[in-house]
Write a structure and sequence with these properties.
Elements (H helix, E strand, L loop, with lengths): L1 H8 L7 E5 L7 E5 L11 E6 L2 E7 L20 E2 L7 H14 L3 H7 L13 E6 L11 H10 L7 H8 L3 H9 L3 E6 L18 H15 L4 E7 L5 H14 L3 E5 L7 H11 L4 E3 L5 H13 L4 E4 L11 E7 L7 E2 L5 E2 H12 L2 E6 L4 H8 L4 E5 L10 E6 L13 H12 L3 E5 L8 E4 L16 E3 L4 E3 L6 E3 L13 E4 L3 H11 L5 E4 L7 H12 L5 E4 L12 E6 L13 H13 L10 E6 L5 H8 L2 H15 L5 E10 L2 H13 L8 E13 L2 E11 L4 H11 L8 E6 L6
Parallel strand pairs: 8-15, 8-16, 9-11, 9-12, 10-11, 12-15, 17-27, 18-25, 18-26, 24-25, 26-27
Antiparallel strand pairs: 1-2, 1-4, 3-4, 3-5, 6-7, 13-14, 19-23, 20-21, 21-22, 28-30, 28-31, 29-30
Bound molecules: adenosine-5'-diphosphate and zinc ion (ZN).
The site of zinc ion has 8 residues, from loops.
């Protein structure tokens, strides 16, 4: 520091300063003095003083934010650089791009790049013991000592505890052998990630697959921007085929990330990767512990991690040299993040590829309308895999018209579906009953006074969860014990459950088929990814006859014995006021029914519906995807909805209904006038209250060629200061309209 003082006292010396971006909700960098002798380059991580704290920041290559030069004497100095690889310039540009596009504070975007705290902490070396090869036998040789030495003879370094446990003795025995000089303490080397071998297995492809493989390999080995939509029914070999682009990128020495919906990160996928590349990929998801997150982060930054498989946040690991991004199940809504930074990871993958000049593969059996349109107009290469690789036909899909074949009173399965389950059980095959609704019943009401139990903090009914004996709010987590009597009129035993959830269907199943083995797949009944993997594995191994599941079952699983899929309520997604309601229902029903009959026999899908003539239902049943696409794309085009137009949502919220309503109206009043941009609303949100927050929505619609972000920024500059607890959230390219 004395050097710094000397320089500061010399009026002719200019101190070197650097802009630093901090992971906070601010849209600017802060300048810091570089102490003499410290070398800093853009992209480097540093500790800096910030207010009363020390914080981690990133050295940027240019100042961002309001230009108000701060006197040198007021600047603080960088404390120290952190010993991790610095971010490549491309990553800085990527952060800027996302901030500009999503209108999130750039500090919050940078924060997504720092999501592994332990990566920035010094590694604490761990110590263990190893055998001293040519030591003389210890003076007192006991059976326990003999066992320990036998274990250690393989030369591996183990912690004392692990060695003692392996030998079945106390750690005192190990200590004794250290004292006698037969074991020596040494540092345990850091684990390294194994390197996948692109040529571990050579796969033979069918002619149709070969065309896609050829093009994908070429794209992944060139250093050019290219996007392919890999489009083929479940079982057509998409995974097998995109593994070839993974192999090509790995062979050219670049890193790969495969993004999957969180729930599809099954051990099945990991095993399959290992079979193809000789070792498992590097995993990145919410179930990783803090030390492992740090290890993966650093391995991505150093280049040691060659192929990462993860959920959407895997896009924000600090890859040293990324050559390929695969987005599997690219249509999945889980790629859209809805809090803090609102972004669509699939779209950001394409942006990153453009900035970094590399390849992207978007794979799906039911691609999003956006990707279809991009494939049609030539922006993306369209690689189509026509049928199932096994040659087994796609399942036969039938609608069950619930108007003419209703279920018995208080039951949910129609006689036709019951018969189909009977047949399937008789053949020792699996049935999947799908209902996209957690819990026992979506509504509980009083038979006497008609009172419906609502969440006290949200405009939503409480959902009964009978296993937990609770009523739960699916929006805020509020819960109460299931009441015996009506909370309003106090009539005893008057509360009844209305409508089915998966738990209620499983109750009916257990009654009808008492000898069948039942598995329920619902996120609230399974604590985490690890447990989920176990349940999925047991189903794969045939340990269930009837599976009852929510949308968890729609994602990427492969159940070899599954022959019949029954959709308990096919109409569930259709009623929503959402421009993607039809698309989503089509995708979900197609994906779920597509789980049936993959290996030897043709499967079947039975959809219970009150709307058998609805165009979405018709497309599913006839398998006429093209007709569905034509219609859906035509509708989007006519209404100027994405991808033909651009949308942004503004959500105003406050504990006070008056305040949120008044401010939402003020926001609308201040919308800049622009000829081709329309501002709809404000309207009370369909979910008017969440967690006690009253919500009002505005929707902005613009043609594609308009600078929507510029418009929104100008608008935000016009807004008055927000009073009290008012909040305004901007959601560019919204996927939720609730
Ligand atoms: P998708 O990802 O489209 O659902 P998969 O890649 O999982 O399809 O392929 C379905 C099944 O067919 C898998 O068991 C896979 O191993 C097998 N398969 C696909 N293509 C080939 C191939 N060229 N050679 C051998 N097996 C293949
Ligand atoms: Zn609630």
């Amino acid at each position: 520091m004395s050097g710094l003082l000397e320089l500061a006292n010399d009026p002719n010396a200019r101190l070197k300063r650097v802009p630093v971006l901090l992971p906070v909700a601010l849209d600017q960098t802060y300048d810091y003095i570089v102490p003499p002798g410290m070398q800093l380059a853009p992209g480097e991580f540093v500790h800096v003083p910030f207010g009363p704290q020390h914080r981690l920041g990133i050295v940027w290559d240019k100042p961002i934010g309001p230009e108000k030069p701060i006197a040198e004497s007021k600047l603080k100095a960088v404390i120290q650089p952190i010993d991790v690889p610095r971010l490549p310039e491309l990553t800085l540009r990527f952060v800027e791009w996302i901030a500009r596009y999503s209108l999130a504070p750039i500090g919050m975007v940078a924060r997504m790049m720092m999501s592994a705290k332990t990566a920035f902490e010094p590694v604490k070396p761990r110590f263990g013991v190893a055998i001293v090869p040519d030591a003389t036998e210890p003076p007192r040789m006991t059976p326990a000592r003999g066992k320990v030495l036998d274990m250690a003879r393989d030369g591996n370094i183990r912690t004392k505890a692990a060695l003692a446990q392996a030998a079945g003795c106390s750690s005192g025995v190990v200590d004794g052998l250290v004292q006698s000089g037969n074991l020596v303490e040494c540092a345990i080397p850091e684990k390294v990630f194994p390197q996948p071998n692109p040529d571990h297995v050579v796969v033979e492809f069918s002619d149709a697959q070969q065309v896609a493989v050829h093009s994908l390999r070429a794209q992944a080995s060139s250093r050019n921007y290219a996007v392919t939509l890999l489009d083929g029914v479940t079982g057509s070999g998409k995974t097998e085929v995109y593994y070839e682009s993974v192999a090509a990128a790995l062979s050219s020495g670049r890193q790969v990330v495969i993004m999957l919906p969180e729930i599809a990160l099954t051990s099945q996928f990991m095993r399959r990767f290992e079979a193809r590349f000789g070792c498992p990929p590097v995993e990145w998801h919410s179930a990783l512990g803090a030390p492992e997150r740090g290890r993966v982060w650093k391995a991505a930054a150093s280049g040691e991690a060659r192929c990462v498989v993860g959920a959407r946040s895997a896009l924000f690991l600090p890859y040293a040299d990324l050559g390929l991004i695969v987005v599997d199940e690219e249509h999945d809504g889980g790629f859209k993040q809805e809090d803090r930074v609102h972004y669509q990871a699939r779209d950001m993958a394409v942006v990153r590829a453009n900035l970094g000049q590399h390849a992207v593969v978007l794979a799906s059996a039911t691609p999003s309308i956006e990707s279809h349109v991009n494939a049609r107009n030539g922006r993306y290469t369209h690689a189509v895999l026509p049928g199932r690789f096994s040659g087994v036909e796609m399942p036969e899909i039938k609608a069950i018209d619930m108007r003419s074949n209703p279920a018995d009173k208080g039951k949910w399965l129609s006689p036709i579906l019951v018969e189909a389950v009977n047949e399937t059980l008789a053949k020792d095959q699996q049935t999947l009953l799908f209902l996209n609704r957690r819990g026992y019943a979506p509504l509980t009401l009083c038979q006497k006074c008609g009172h419906r139990i609502e969440c006290p903090q949200c405009s939503a009914w409480l959902v009964e969860h009978r296993f937990r004996k609770q009523l739960n709010c699916h929006h805020c987590g509020f819960h109460l014990p299931t009441p015996e009597s009506c909370p309003k009129c106090e009539a005893p035993g008057s509360m009844v459950a209305c409508g089915p959830g998966v738990e209620r269907v499983s109750e009916e199943v257990a009654e009808r088929w008492p000898d069948a083995r039942i598995a329920i797949l619902s996120s609230d009944l399974i604590p985490g990814l690890v447990e989920m993997r176990q349940v999925i594995k047991s189903i794969e191994e045939g340990e269930a006859d009837i599976i009852i599941g929510t949308q968890l079952v729609a994602k990427g699983h492969h159940f070899p014995d599954l022959a019949t899929v029954g959709i308990v309520d096919g109409d569930l997604g259709l009623g929503q006021a959402d421009p993607r309601a039809g698309e989503r229902t089509f995708q979900l029903l197609h994906q779920v029914t597509g789980r049936a009959g993959r290996e030897q026999v043709r499967g079947r899908g039975l959809i219970q519906t009150h709307l058998p003539d609805h165009p979405v239902m018709d497309a599913i049943i006839t398998g006429d995807r093209e007709a569905f696409l034509e219609r859906e794309i035509g509708m989007r085009q006519a209404a100027m909805l994405p991808p033909y137009g651009r949308l942004a949502a503004l959500i105003v919220s406050s504990k006070s209904k008056e305040l949120s309503e008044a401010f939402a109206k003020e926001v609308a009043r201040r919308a800049p006038r622009a000829e081709r941009i329309s501002v709809l609303g404000p309207a009370e949100a369909p979910l008017a209250v969440i967690r006690g927050q009253h919500r009002w929505r505005l929707l902005v619609k613009a043609p594609r060629d308009i600078d929507l972000q510029g418009y929104l920024r100008a608008w935000m500059d016009e807004l008055p200061q927000m009073k009290g607890d008012l909040r305004l959230v901007l959601d560019v390219d919204p996927y939720s309209f609730l």
